[in-house]
Specification:
Blueprint: H1 2-18, H2 28-38, E1 44-50, E2 53-60, E3 62-65, E4 68-70, E5 77-78, H3 84-96, H4 106-109, H5 120-125, H6 133-140, H7 157-167, H8 183-197, H9 201-210, E6 219-220, E7 238-240, E8 247-249, E9 264-266, H10 268-277, H11 286-292, E10 311-314, E11 320-328, E12 331-338, E13 343-349, H12 362-365, E14 376-377, H13 378-389, H14 391-404, E15 409-410, H15 413-425, H16 429-442, H17 447-459, H18 463-476, H19 481-490
Helix pairs in contact: 3-8, 3-9, 13-14, 13-15, 15-16, 15-17, 16-17, 17-18, 18-19
């Protein structure tokens, strides 16, 4: 009896000693994203795919401001320039089917345009030298109306092509001589897809890309102002005013109907389906897809960092990465694919965020590498002070933060530049002039500071000095062709 009791006690003690606490799965990505959300650095959806599985997906913030509603994983965001990879895929499919060649001339498909010796490959690689259609349309398409006036809306790509064929704006450089990101080129590619396939661009993408990959919540969206019963999960872009409290819509633009360089709406789940499909032959062969991930070349043989609809770089482990960002009206989107490690992360935002960089530590987190916490924007703090206490107080606080708290605040040319334009948007042109002048003094080697200061001078009706600074910007950096054009118009 005593032996039996002793054996029982020993057994209980042994089992108790061997018992462990239940394992709690740690989600470092969720912890980090909640942290930056709490600091006001995130409003959007984020998905992280690591080592063959989804390790985090979440919604942070609101999808609309009137009425306010919460984002969900089914929310459909504007993809902006992330749309370009779908346009490039359509071109690759048509090339694979023998319907076109990458070395075909643009005029073969859009003969009404005045541009010569520009190939489909130039368009894909952003080496065409084409002028920027956004700036061209701003000055030539109902310029008396605001950009968010529905009466100014274009009907689609045809309006842009017809007006450029009529006005014949000059190219910026000889095709193939330089790399210069070109939305115009991808607008033309969408027109080529439509003309070669004989169907509307949105239909081609649905039948040949979205449907085969099961992307049922993705479409080339026919933009509607306000709520659309055809897309109940659509997200609206918004902005937060400089006072840090009031929100305003940032969703409407007269160029929203353009296709090819943007125009697609999608969800996190569908973009992951897209990522997964690109590891298969569902859409094109492996050989064809490899061209999308191959850097383009200039006429002198130098490589660019752009393929067909994808930027190309190395990961923190020195392996190949393809990625793309997109920004239009209130939206910011990012897809990052470590194609040799089978990792991916996707970001969708709708709040005109200046904190997009706060999401980039995920690149290091994917490989358990140390990272730095993002800093708060000094422009936000200084802007609030200028509005409440005046420009002198604002500049004084800027100086204090710059020298006393540089580890906590982002102090940069971009911060002052953004603040200056926000002040101009509030008709505080004298304040903007002082901020942008300070920016020019602190970053005298940057052509952009001269261009921005010129904009402030023009807003203050100092045309002569605006011309001088526009010309200075172009003299410092020949890619500032918009500065040159502004000066010419004023002259």
């Amino acid at each position: 009896m005593r032996n039996t009791l002793l054996l029982g006690i020993l057994t209980v003690l042994f089992i108790s000693a061997c018992k462990t606490e239940p394992t709690v799965k740690v989600d470092p990505f969720g912890e980090y994203l909640n942290n930056i959300y709490d600091k006001g650095m995130l409003n959007g959806n984020v998905l992280v795919f690591q080592n063959g599985e989804i390790v985090h997906q979440g919604s942070y913030g609101i999808g609309n401001i009137d009425p306010i509603d919460s984002l969900t994983l089914d929310s459909q965001f504007r993809m902006a320039s992330v749309s370009k990879q779908f346009t490039a895929m359509a071109i690759m499919q048509l090339n694979e089917k023998g319907k076109l060649s990458y070395d075909d001339d643009l005029k073969k498909f859009i003969p009404e345009l005045p541009y010569k010796d520009i190939t489909v490959r130039h368009l894909l690689h952003h080496t065409s030298g084409l002028p920027d259609y956004e700036e061209f349309m701003y000055y030539n398409w109902k310029p008396e109306l605001k950009i968010d006036d529905p009466a100014r809306f274009i009907s689609g790509n045809t309006d842009v092509i017809e007006l450029m064929a009529e006005k014949k704006p000059e190219i910026d450089f000889i095709p193939g001589e330089q790399w210069d990101y070109s939305n115009t080129g991808y607008l033309f590619l969408a027109a080529i897809v439509s003309r070669v396939s004989g169907m509307p661009f949105e239909q081609y993408l649905k039948e040949n890309i979205f449907d085969p990959t099961g992307m049922s919540s993705t479409s080339v969206y026919k933009y509607v102002v306000g709520k659309d019963p055809e897309m109940p999960n659509r997200v609206f872009g918004y902005d937060t005013k400089l006072n840090g409290e009031d929100r305003i819509y940032h969703d409407i633009h007269y160029l929203n109907p353009v296709q090819g360089d943007g125009g697609i709406y999608s969800t996190l789940g569908d973009l992951l389906k897209w990522d997964r499909a690109l590891y298969t032959n569902t859409l094109v062969s492996e050989e064809t897809l490899s061209e999308a991930y191959t850097p383009g070349k200039l006429n002198n043989g130098d490589e660019t960092n752009y393929g067909f609809g994808w930027f190309i770089e190395k990961s923190v482990t020195d392996k190949k990465v393809v990625f793309h960002s997109g920004g239009w009206v209130g939206f910011g989107t990012y897809i990052y694919r470590e194609i040799e490690d089978n990792n991916c992360f996707i970001v969708q935002t709708n709040n005109s965020t200046s904190y997009f960089g706060a999401l980039m530590p995920i690149k290091k987190m994917l490989h358990d590498q140390p990272y730095e916490m993002p800093k708060l924007n000094v422009g936000e703090v200084v802007g609030k002070i200028i509005l409440s206490e005046g420009i002198d107080k604002g500049l004084s606080e800027y100086n204090r933060l710059k020298f006393e708290e540089p580890d906590n605040y982002e102090i940069s040319e971009g911060q002052l530049n953004s603040l200056g334009y926000q002040l101009m948007g509030l008709d505080r042109n004298q304040d903007a002039l002082q901020i942008l002048k300070r920016n020019q003094e602190e970053y005298p080697e940057s052509a952009n500071t001269y261009d921005s200061y010129a904009d402030a001078l023009l807003a203050n009706k100092d045309t002569a000095n605006a011309i001088i600074n526009y010309n200075k910007a172009f003299a410092m950096d020949s890619t500032f062709t918009t500065s040159r054009e502004k000066a010419k118009r004023l002259e």
